[in-house]
Design goal:
Radius of gyration of chain B: 37 Å
Shape of chain A: extended
Structural class of chain A: alpha/beta
Largest interface: A-B, 109 and 105 residues
Structural class of chain B: alpha+beta
Distance between the termini of chain B: 66 Å
Shape of chain B: globular
Distance between the termini of chain A: 52 Å
Oligomer: heterodimer
Largest sheet of chain A: 5 strands, mixed
Chain lengths: ~525, ~800
């Protein structure tokens, strides 16, 4: 139970209960990884998970009747919870047809242009539509459902006489997820698409083919009601067109190896459905675009000039030390600056790694936290970038793999209020870019977050000079106030106006003219 | 010599600092003022030195900051000028002024620092080494003094930690106790509420539940949980737990028997009501022989259970017991039924554990009574050598168990000589297991009781080891006495050892009594014990096997050197070794019994030597404690030593043989070579030094963090390569654990397909879990290693200072992401 702590047995009932608004944040951060008290479920069916609190855990039976009663009650409550009747509302139920080769010939380039090329950066503009992955879409939906806000994709800007124009097409993981949830009735067609979805005629079922680009935006109840009606009418000849597929059949059709068109690997599907059930919004990440080789950050004239200055005057360190010249020092900054020989990593806006991410260490999914206004076409940049790897076939990523993966994500600096020495740990732990890696070990998913660390940005030694002073709180010592003129500049050993630079750096972390004189 | 030098420099620096300080205000960040403290061990002056002063220096370099100029305070300008002028006129010694001295030790792959001043200075400046005699701060000397001389005032951090832990243990214990009490209260309340309506149910449940044997034992265990009345009652029942068994069996004591028999009749409802709460607990009143499967299952699993049941004795009191009492020969049947087999003791511990109670709780009357009764028993009982499976199982499983018993004898060996006549009496009158206890003078007897009462204490190596030889001797005496019966002193020993030794042997046949003959068990054992001399005598046959001598002795070679010097010759004497060999031989099929040579009497110098050998180890030599030399030494890890030497220049490493300082270049080669095992030699072969030598990679990481101001420390305790402190363990917990990941991304490496061994995900998860448990974050530090040609060029061009620039270091922060928490 504790292993697959993310798979809460109660999450599914909650999710289905609140299927009407999938995006409703279930918000059970409270019951993070522990077993909740099932008895609280029983009191109120609509209870928010937040109110469920965990009880104390007994590790053994101590023979009191109170304990046995509690256990029995809890069992009973769990039974009741699990025996909750799940209702599939007709407006959530749609029928889908499996047409694996319909989009096989679809030119992806056109798709890309429609999608907007900069989707990788996660900063697509409002007008641009995200990458559609049309070639991988294998299931066409009859009508649309609530989940159309989150799943599926229709090809727009097609001529009116195109077959099944404006219909939503599902990716294999989306289709399988809906089938598993019971929201999708997947059918195997025995006729062609043109017969199941007859060409558009102005008089026939106009309402089904929405001219708009976003089918989900229309009134759903009307559409579904129409679909149901048509179903009942066509009940007799329903099986002429195709046969319904079981979940097992859906699995065998849609699960495949990595790289197969129209299929999804089992690991990716497991991650997809796990995150989807946890309430996230997920889209497939667009394929890698050829990134230009990381250009060196442009150097301003002043930086260039200042870089010339110390290099000439700075003496080459002695081959076998000591690195620190013997002498009299007024502060620790020059001492530590003499120790710098190993280059420090400096995070930058442009990706610094010369490698391109390779499977499996590449971003496979973009993930958003549940938000009320999220839609598959209009959404902010992703919250997380996720790669899915198999625990058995891969290991801890190598230097190239991890840097390429992390560099494929946009810079994500920490919160702006994380300034000052007090929040140093938070800054360091957050890193500058980060990517998630879902490690799937035979169905057990473990998410790891890898972030680009930059210890070189935190120069601890700058505080050494002031830290030996008594604290202002204790012993009546005086804290150094801003009115204090730093006499370090008088020192012949402090070569640069370093202290001033330091204070400037803290305000603006991205400023490059810091103390680091990396070669 | 070097230490003296270091000392002198320290003193000089201290005096120099005095001058510097005089004018400086105390409120200013005067690092110089701390020098006096940091160079020597922290002085325990009445006014405590604040930590930030003790641990003032982040590196072994002091700074001399000028006083701050306050525009509002013109005096501060004068002050500034004065200080500056003073430093110009008489400049302080160039830093690093103190050069510590260490000796390279190839065996531990570390640099040993022995000077106490250097040790404490290095510790305070963030060099922790790979380990020292102290757990944290190097304060071995302080601790030793505190430990040996004054128990007061040793305020070493270890002591405080220990005290805190003890406190916490106590608190936990208290908490557990209150929890348990709450549960007990709950149970009793529930029982109370259950009692009133449950009158009929009780009897019904009684009828349903099969009468099984374990009830009194369980009742005793459960007694604290039971409701008050029931508790009393049960306690009363089980009060004369073991020892009463024979007593009750004897019809001479009608009163007690009546009482015990009455009990269940008087308060049946309370007792049963209590147990009806938990159906697993059953109380037996009529011990019928168990036949059904339920009954068999409910049978006790060990003799302990059996012995603890007082009630089972009531009815059986059978003829067999009386037979034993009246000196009729007892025929042991081999246990055949499953119940009997289950009831066999699993180890000697079971048996031994039960006996202390018996000895302790015995009243004097009982003793005398039993003595009187038991004396006649001894002779006629014939005890067969173990043949049946039950008996074999019941035999002691290891010699240690047996040995442990004999420790008791060792304690007062002199008394054997001192009071021979008393022991003679004892030997005659008290040959059973009880007799030692009953012996009125009973040094040996009381010892025996103690030894039995604390079976745990017997486990410790010294006790068993030390007692081994004594045990053997005693046993020999015992053999001799049983044959020849001459020496007086042996009598007591005989009784004791035989009781110990015969316990297992006699326990086996007695496991039969599960079917209600429980009481007989103890009695039987007691009665048999006296006779065990005979079987022991027969088993003495192994006496002259030299092979057994050597093998048996090695296991019990006492750990303390004083003992070991004494005992080996003793062990080599065939007679002494035989004693233990005989006890082992029956259970182990490996040692076949050798031809009986038991008729040969054991010579009795043994008892005389026994006290000698024991007394030799006894007194601690207090003279040694007086001359206490500081054994503390500091083992600087190679990375730390190289950083101090190469980067700061504050350490000079000596060659262990020539005691000449090793130049840094050679030191680097040395460290690199010794980062492999076996150490690589510096030549041009394939197995020579490489740019990815573990030392170089680790040093690159160490230097990287150190040069940023972090305090890295080896993180073996946390399963990582380094842990990073912001200031040091005194001030804060480390926040990060660092795993060094060598990587070979250069094209020249990939050409040769040189790759670091790939770590598995489970490895990463494990490391992360452990670190998360101690609230640290994991940092994977990838070190991109330059290919050999580039590295060699750089080494030629500018030495290691240039070559290190080729190492590319990237930190990757790793954290587990919880999908449930981040929504």
């Amino acid at each position: 139970m504790s292993l697959d702590d993310d798979d809460m047995p109660t999450t599914a009932p909650i999710a289905s209960a609140s299927a009407d608004q999938e995006d409703a944040p279930t918000g059970d951060e409270v019951l993070e990884e522990e077993i909740q008290d099932f008895r609280l479920f029983r009191k109120d069916k609509n209870i928010s998970a937040q109110t469920i609190r965990k009880g104390e855990k007994d590790f053994e039976s101590h023979g009191t009747r109170a304990q046995e009663n509690a256990l029995e009650q809890s069992r009973q409550a769990m039974k009741e919870v699990l025996s909750y009747t799940r209702v599939h509302q007709t407006r959530n139920l749609v029928r889908g047809w499996y047409f694996p080769d319909w989009w096989a010939e679809w030119p992806e380039k056109e798709d890309e242009s429609a999608a907007g090329g900069n989707a990788t950066q996660g900063t697509q503009e409002k007008d641009k539509r995200p990458f559609a992955h049309m070639r991988d879409r294998v299931v066409i939906l009859e009508g649309s459902s609530v989940s159309s806000t989150y799943l599926g994709r229709a090809v727009t800007s097609q001529p009116k006489e195109t077959l099944a124009r404006g219909k939503d097409w599902l990716l294999p993981e989306e289709a399988l997820y809906l089938v598993e949830r019971g929201s999708l009735d997947l059918w195997w067609p025995t006729r062609g698409l043109e017969e199941i979805f007859p060409p558009w005629k102005p008089d026939v079922k106009d309402s089904e083919a929405h001219p708009e680009s976003e089918p989900a935006a229309t009134s759903e109840a009307e559409v579904v009601g129409h679909a149901v009606e048509s179903n009942t009418v066509n009940e007799a000849d329903e099986y002429d067109q195709g046969i319904p597929l079981s979940v097992q059949a859906a699995y065998s059709l849609l699960i495949g190896n990595d790289g197969e068109r129209g299929k999804v690997s089992l690991q990716k599907f497991q991650v997809y459905s796990n995150l989807k059930r946890a309430g996230y919004n997920i889209l497939r990440a667009p394929p890698l675009t050829k990134q230009c080789t990381p250009q060196t950050p442009s150097v301003t004239l002043w930086q260039w000039l200042s870089s010339l200055l110390p290099s000439g005057s700075e003496p080459q360190p002695r081959p076998y030390g000591p690195l620190i010249q013997p002498g009299l020092y007024r502060s620790y900054v020059p001492i530590y600056r003499q120790m710098v020989i190993i280059p420090r990593h400096k995070p930058s806006a442009a990706p610094s790694s010369p490698w391109l991410p390779e499977d499996p260490f590449s971003v496979h999914f973009h993930i958003w936290k549940a938000a009320p206004k999220w839609s598959k076409l209009r959404h902010p940049p992703p919250d997380f970038y996720l790669a899915v790897v198999d625990a058995q076939e891969t290991g801890v990523p190598t230097f190239q793999e991890i840097t390429a993966l992390v560099d494929a994500t946009p810079p994500a600096p920490g919160k702006p209020e994380w300034t000052g020495p007090g929040r140093m740990y938070a800054r360091l732990k957050h890193g500058h870019r980060n990517a998630l890696v879902a490690v799937v070990d035979h169905g057990i998913i473990n998410y790891m977050r890898f972030a680009e660390g930059a210890f070189g940005e935190e120069l601890l030694f700058e505080r050494f000079d002031s830290r030996n002073a008594p604290r202002s709180g204790k012993g009546g010592g005086r804290a150094l106030s801003s009115s204090v003129i730093d006499t370090g500049t008088l020192d012949k050993f402090s070569k640069q106006p370093s202290e001033l630079c330091v204070s400037g750096r803290k305000v603006e972390p991205k400023d490059n003219n810091t103390l680091d004189d990396d070669p | 010599m070097e230490e003296d030098m270091a000392e002198s420099t320290t003193v000089m620096m201290a005096s120099a600092n005095e001058d510097t300080i005089t004018g400086v205000e105390a409120t200013l960040p005067s690092n110089a003022s701390d020098a006096t403290i940091t160079t020597g061990p922290p002085t325990t002056s009445p006014t405590r030195v604040p930590l930030y002063k003790i641990y003032a220096l982040p590196t072994p370099i002091r700074t001399f900051p000028l006083p701050t100029f306050y525009p509002s305070n013109p005096i501060s300008l004068i002050h500034l000028v004065i200080v500056w002028l003073r430093q110009v006129v008489s400049p302080p010694q160039p830093e690093p002024s103190t050069i510590h001295v260490g000796v390279w030790d190839p065996n531990t792959r570390s640099v040993h620092v022995k000077d106490p001043g250097s040790i404490s200075a290095l510790w305070e400046q963030g060099f922790y080494g790979k380990g020292s005699l102290s757990r944290s701060e190097p304060n071995w000397m302080k601790r030793e003094i505190g430990r040996r001389e004054s128990t007061q005032g040793n305020t070493v951090s270890e002591e405080r930690t220990e005290a805190r832990r003890e406190e916490r243990r106590q608190a936990k214990w208290e908490r557990a106790k209150t929890e348990l009490e709450a549960i007990e209260r709950q149970i009793s309340e529930e029982a109370l509420t259950q009692v009133e309506p449950a009158g009929d149910i009780v009897s019904a449940s009684d009828a349903v539940l099969p009468p099984s044997g374990n009830s009194p034992a369980v009742a005793e265990l459960e007694s604290p949980l039971a409701e008050p009345e029931a508790t009393e009652e049960v306690a009363f029942e089980s009060q004369p737990p073991v020892q009463q068994a024979p007593e009750e069996a004897i019809p001479v004591m009608p009163i007690k028997e009546a009482v015990t028999a009455q009990l269940p009749v008087d308060h049946p409802i309370e007792v049963l009501a209590d147990f009806s709460v938990k159906p697993s607990v059953q109380l037996v009143i009529q011990p019928k022989p168990p036949v059904g499967p339920a009954e068999l299952l409910a049978l006790p699993n060990s003799v302990t259970d059996l012995i603890r049941r007082p009630q089972a004795h009531e009815e059986p009191v059978p003829q067999i017991v009386e037979a034993a009492l009246f000196c009729r020969p007892i025929v042991h049947k081999a246990p055949v039924g499953p119940a009997e087999l289950l009831a066999l003791p699993n180890s000697q511990a079971d048996l031994v554990a039960t006996s202390p109670q018996s000895h302790e709780e015995e009243t004097h009357e009982e003793e005398t009574l039993i003595q009187a009764k038991a004396v006649p028993i001894c002779r006629p009982v014939e005890s067969k050598s173990p043949i049946g499976p039950a008996e074999l199982l019941a035999l002691p499983n290891c010699l240690v168990e047996l040995m442990s018993g004999s420790l008791l004898v060792k304690g007062e060996p002199k008394d054997f000589e001192a009071v021979p006549s008393q022991f003679q009496e004892a030997a005659h009158t008290l040959p059973t297991a009880k007799q030692p206890t009953a012996a009125t003078n009973g040094h040996a007897g009381s010892k025996l009781v103690n030894g039995h009462a604390q079976p745990n204490g017997l486990v410790n190596g010294y006790a068993t080891g030390a007692s081994a030889c004594v045990h053997r001797e005693v046993e020999d005496n015992d053999a001799s006495i049983s044959e020849t019966k001459p020496p007086v002193t042996n009598g007591a020993c005989n009784g004791i050892t035989s009781s110990i030794l015969s316990d297992p042997a006699s326990g086996a046949p007695e496991t039969r009594p599960i079917q209600g003959e429980g009481p007989q068990l103890l009695k039987r054992r007691q009665s048999v014990l006296g006779e065990e001399a005979q079987p022991l005598k027969r088993r003495k046959s192994v006496r002259f096997s030299p092979r057994v001598v050597s093998t048996t002795f090695q296991h019990f070679d006492p750990p303390s050197p004083s003992r070991s010097t004494v005992s080996p010759p003793k062990a080599s004497s065939p007679a002494s070794s035989n004693g233990s060999a005989t006890t082992i031989s029956p259970p182990s099929p490996m040692t076949p019994p050798e031809p009986v040579t038991s008729l040969e009497p054991v010579t009795s110098p043994e008892p005389e030597t026994t006290p000698d050998s024991v007394s030799e180890s006894g007194p601690e030599t207090y003279a040694v404690l007086k001359e206490l030399s500081n054994k503390e030494h500091f083992q600087l890890a190679p990375e730390e030593a190289f950083f101090l030497s190469f980067s700061v220049g504050a350490l000079s490493v000596m060659d262990p043989v020539t005691l000449a300082p090793i130049p840094t270049e050679d030191l680097l080669t040395l460290f690199r070579a010794h980062s492999y095992f076996p150490p690589r030699t510096v030549d041009s072969s394939v197995e020579s030094l490489q740019p990815h030598d573990p030392f170089l990679v680790n040093y690159a990481v160490y230097h990287h963090f150190r040069s940023l101001g972090w305090v890295p420390r080896h993180g073996m305790k946390f399963g990582v390569d380094f842990i990073l402190y912001q200031r040091g363990p005194v001030f804060d917990h480390s926040e990060f654990g660092v795993m060094v990941m060598p990587s070979f991304s250069d094209a020249q490496w990939t050409e040769h397909e040189h790759q670091a061994p790939r770590k598995s995900w489970s490895w990463l998860m494990g490391v992360n879990r452990v670190l998360a448990h101690v609230l640290k974050g994991l940092v994977l530090v990838y070190v991109d290693i330059p290919p050999p040609p580039v590295f060699d060029d750089a080494m030629k061009q500018g030495g290691i200072a240039v070559a290190l620039k080729l190492y590319n270091i990237r930190e990757v922060m790793v954290r587990r992401f919880s999908a449930n928490r981040n929504r």
